[in-house]
Design brief:
The chain has about 130 residues and is an alpha/beta fold. It is about 25% helix and about 35% strand.
């Protein structure tokens, strides 16, 4: 248990890397449509900042030893503080968000799908009322 705490205390950030066949389209989705800030970019890898200390990277599978899962079994969960405003933006931007739903743990949520097929869950905790 002590070594587990030691690792956690030494971590500075966390990064999820998505390996993509539809790399250029997926980069545009996160950069131009969700407006995630780019922290690093080259000709096959883009690292975005998704929250303080959290990163989301998109890698071109043609240049990587890891291949795309084509979105199978992956959900990116992004917490926001204005679920209605974010969903309205997603609708106007043509991102085809699902209807707002309520999670059993008192959160409201909707979903998007990126060009690679990854499910993006946008949620807000403890908003009260029905979604």
């Amino acid at each position: 248990m002590g070594s587990q705490r030691a690792l956690q205390k030494r971590m500075k950030s966390a990064n999820t890397i998505l390996y993509c066949r539809e790399w250029e389209e997926t980069v545009r989705f996160y950069r131009d449509r969700l407006h995630l800030p780019v922290r690093f970019s080259n000709d096959w890898f883009v690292e975005f900042e998704s929250a303080q200390g959290a990163r989301l990277s998109v890698a071109d599978e043609r240049r990587s030893s890891v291949k795309s899962s084509r979105g199978l079994g992956i959900t990116l969960a992004l917490e926001v503080d204005d679920i209605e405003g974010v969903r309205e933006y997603a609708e106007k931007a043509g991102l085809k968000p699902t209807a707002l739903r309520r999670h059993p743990w008192d959160a409201r949520v909707f979903y998007l799908v990126d060009p690679e097929g990854h499910r993006v869950e946008i949620w807000q905790a403890g908003t009260g009322g029905e979604g």
